[in-house]
Write a structure and sequence with these properties.
Elements lengths: L8 E5 L3 H12 L3 E6 L10 E4 L1 H9 L3 H7 L1 E3 L1 E5 L5 E6 L11 E5 H14 L3 E4 L3 E6 L6 E5 L4 E4 L1 E4 L7 H4 L7 E13 L7 E5 L4 E6 L4 E9 L11 H9 L5 H8 L6 E10 L5 E2 L2 E3 L5 E2 L7 H18 L3 H31 L3 H15 L4
Parallel strand pairs: 1-2, 1-12, 2-8, 5-14, 12-19
Antiparallel strand pairs: 3-7, 4-7, 5-6, 9-10, 10-11, 13-16, 13-17, 14-15, 15-16, 17-20, 18-19
Helix pairs in contact: 1-4, 1-8, 2-8, 8-9, 9-10
The structure holds flavin-adenine dinucleotide.
Amino acid sequence: MDSYRGVRTALIVGAGMAGLTAAIALARDGWQVEVAEAAPTRAAAGWGLCLTGPSLRALDELGLADTCLAEGYGMSTITHVYVDGEPAGETQLPRLIGAGRPAAAGIARPVLHRILYEEAERCGVVIRHQVTAAAVEQDQEGELVRVRLSDGTVRQVALLVGADGVKSSVRGLLGFETSLDYHGLMIWRALVPRPPWASGIHQFAGKADTAGIVPISDSQAYVFLTENGAERSALPDAELAPRMRRLLESFSGRVQEMRSLVSASESVVRRPMLTTFLEGGWNRGNGVVIGDAAHAPAPHMASGAALAIEDGLVLARELGRHGSVGAGLQAFVDRRTQRCRTLVETSVAIVGLEQAQQYREMYPLVDSCHRLMAEPV
Ligand SMILES: Cc1cc2nc3c(=O)[nH]c(=O)nc-3n(C[C@H](O)[C@H](O)[C@H](O)COP(=O)(O)OP(=O)(O)OC[C@H]3O[C@@H](n4cnc5c(N)ncnc54)[C@H](O)[C@@H]3O)c2cc1C
């Protein structure tokens, strides 16, 4: 197999987890990387994130897992509680970065974003804000792709990566079509002080919804809630905290303590749950889409970040191992498709079981999916 010796210039659209990890991995392999990000600043939306074993494993390969553990909160268990308050058991998450380190980390999104951002800049990646791709054209020889940016400037690069999230516009510019599926489920997150007992993930089945808590530092945690049977809608900001507290009223036990911690609406976010899987390949010419732009799972497995970060790493590895960008992209897609499809499909099946309140079937499926995700990438 030839290793790639051609021009190493890349434009990545989207400075999320997939885009920044791809930028870091490519820059370390000698690529000249520019990232175009639509947002005006580098702040990441949302409060907290759970980095499960596969996320930490991929971050460890980039040398960043220990920083995430130091700035986040290391943990190794999920405690499940049935709707009647009866304990449903404890899942030991697989420790994929060694027995001496935690299996997972809760972390504030802006903190993870800062860690990735600073590493990308240390590697020489140029990140530009309030810019996106406006048009894409493959050159006749198939060696370069020409991208017109929204500021009117043009880039001719060997590689275009669309890492612009579930609503990706690069996906459309490359000629792909996919559906974004809404499953009647709104997802809530609230930043709260960490109760002393929340030293791992706790998940509580309710009469219609599921709630839980994830620690993200010694002092902070986020409360999560899935609101089932909800219309896809936006609420006025001021209504977020009161509505979340009202939805949590139907739970008993520790959720009432969590509920009392949900205070200001500025600390609450509510999003529609959208999933997608791009069938038939994610690459065209010298362009490819990665992360949520190609495969967005339901958050129930807390593994979308893992897929996004793994994508960034595997993309750089496969490009380095093949004689042309086209061959490298094809190898990347071949290597990633089955794993990402399985996660998206299983996460949607878990949502179905949750909505049918079949928790006794749901928890074992969550466990088996964590074991599957633990397999080597
Ligand atoms: C409520 C919720 C909770 C979740 N919790 C977890 C969890 O605990 N653990 C986990 O592993 N996963 C979780 N996920 C999934 C995880 O957030 C995603 O899988 C992950 O963020 C995907 O990374 P990405 O880089 O592909 O996309 P994103 O994180 O969405 O990043 C895309 C980036 O592209 C930018 N962008 C968008 N459009 C354009 C454009 N046209 N031009 C330029 N830039 C653009 C955006 O501003 C953003 O910076 C959750 C998802 C949701 C919705």
